[in-house]
Amino acid sequence: MVTATETETDDDSVIVLASPADPNQTLQLDCFDEELSEIQKEYYEKGLKEHNDVKNRLKELIGNAHNIYSGEIFSAYEILGPAPELESFSKPISAFNKKEPKRERGRKREPEPRAVDSDDDDEDTIPLSRRKAKIKKEMKVKEVKKEKVEKSPSITSVSNVRPTESTAIGGLVVGTEAAKKKPAVVDLTKEDNAGDSTEVAFNKLNGKTFPSLVVVARPSLKVKDSFKNDRSALDNKVKGVLMHPAVKFTEWLIQNGLIKSEQQCQVHTGRNLKLGMYSDAAKFPYSGGYVWISQCCPTRFVSVFNRSIFEAAPYAPTVLLKLIYHWVCQTNVTNVVQWVKVDNLYLKNFYSWLRSACTIALQSHMGKMGGHNKKIEIGVISLGTTTQDGKQRQVKVEVLGIFDPDQKIVRLRAVEPLADGENNHKKRFQKILEPLADWVQKDSTILTDLTVDKNVLHSMGFKNIVQVSPQDQARAPNSNAQIMDYLRRIVPRMFQNTLSLLSRQIIQQFLDELVWREQYGTSPGQAFDNIVSHISEQTKVESKEPFTTRLTKVSANPYKMWVTTKSGKRK
Q1: 467-492 pLDDT, tens per residue?
Q2: Which residue in 264, 229, 259, 192 sits closest to 509, CA to CA?
Q3: What is d(CA 571, CA 566) in angstroms, rounded to the nearest whole number?
């Protein structure tokens, strides 16, 4: 047992602890775990639910936000537009700094001189004349500070903002840490992802290029020798644009619609921004100082490249214009990488965006083919891979071809084949011929061969059908010989060495590009003007997501109808 004795001294008390008499006796106490009561459990579950609700709400907000800083410990996000139930966070930065100055009634009183504390031992030794001078000096300093405080705080908050191209909303990231980071390769396709993963794995193993960069879609239906001569004219045109100073180059982009001519405030809906010229053009070197500003959000600077194909690009806009030129001219990929100095992965993504623009253009501008007493040729081929011994053949994709012999217009669709072991002939052609409902007039005369199921065409509403045997295709006047020749000669040549490495979505991208080039890009000059025009059309579309994000979604699913009418319905 522990005993204590207390002795008193002159200063304080002293407590002396005596050792226990029995060495087995200790101060350790027995304890046991007590189960939580129902009230305690209910309180704990309530707190846990609130914690999860807050965490999920934050994740939802951050999911729609833009990451503007990411460090080892902290990350900063910018919430675009009004956030529900967070009115204070939806205000511009200047709104937090603005404070209404206190209103004082009547005349301003002159500051009264403070009396000198006579108890201060230090000031007693100072002569009276020096003490008065010191008081006047302190009064002047306080008056100057008061005048600075009474000035409008909103002006100082705006002047403290130091915008640059990389910090402006939707600006380029040339030379920043974000540009140095290689974007993660994310497969956005829900189907056939094995093809995309194979392409990425091939790139990592080979280290040279992506298989999709090797595919070349060459038009052949309307190409004339005279069209080839416009290459030199296009070269001079592009060189002239690239020689422009930054200001004039930006004006050329606006005039041609590659960047928006109007921008709206993302915080205050319906308020248009004003295109201004920043005093220090070095802060916006690629636009020559052009930047979008507003009176409602004076601290928010919006880049002229916002919501365009140049947004957040790690390269200068002149570099991206060169990439458009080389895509149009179908320059060898190795030369593009060496001459333009771009990353292989960015080049792959940029070219897929251009193919997405082709997909949207076809949906926007190409109407239904054929009509009364007009002939439309229809053909189907299967593309696949074979083993080295040639004994086994696996169908990768089936390609539907539709051709207007009078207008020289072609449409192509890559269709997933039926699963192995499924030999339903009717179901197969229902799947293959599905696009005819959107592409061909019902009163057209369909020219096809005996391999196509005639009953499926009848069930779709096509009554005028002419079928010939494959042996008579070349001799018969009403046959599908031209589309079958196109499908057998042009299409397989595109995917000669890359078919097994490409997904069905990527194959459809290239079929759309081929159709687009047959219609809008038979020569380099025509292709350049039309791709600029079609990118311009999509740049004008108002959307809450970045332009390149929309194009990425189109490339992930080129089968979807992406064009909307003014009423909001799919075209």
Answers
A1: 998 777 777 788 999 999 999 999 99
A2: 192
A3: 10
Whether the per-residue pLDDT at 51 is higher than 70: the answer is: yes
Q: Indicate the class that CATH gives domain 366-511.
A: alpha beta
Secondary structure string (H, E, C) spanning 71-96 = CCCCEEEEECCCCCCCHHHHCCHHHH
Sign of CA dihedral 114, 115, 119, 120: positive
Cα 82 from chain centre: 21
Asked if 467 and 449 touch (Cβ cutoff 8 Å), the reply is yes
Dig out the tokens for 403 from the structure.
């051709």
Structure tokens at 443: 């009163």
Which pLDDT belongs to residue 355?
Answer: 98
Q: What is the dihedral of CA 71, 72, 73, 75, to 10 degrees?
A: 30
Q: Which residue has the tokens 């589309």?
A: 483
Say how far apart CA 571 and CA 569 lie, in whole Å.
6
Distance between CA atoms of residues 264 and 274, nearest Å: 9
Q: Is 389 helix (H, G, I), strand (E, B) or coil?
A: coil
Task: Give the pLDDT score at 229.
Answer: 73
> Any idea where the domains of the chain sit in the sequence?
38-95, 366-511
| Token duo for residue 140 | 């002047």
Whether the CB-CB separation of 69 and 75 falls below 8 Å is answered with yes
Please report, to the nearest 10 degrees, the dihedral formed by the alpha carbons of residues 302, 307, 311, 312 taken in order: 70
Q: Tokens in use for 81?
A: 């537009």
Measured distance CA(465)–CA(444) in Å, rounded:
9
CB 288 within 8 Å of CB 245: yes
* Token pair in block for residue 28: 């350790």
Q: Which residues of 536-555 are buried (b: 16+ CB within 10 A; e: fewer)?
A: bebbeeeeeebbbebbbebb
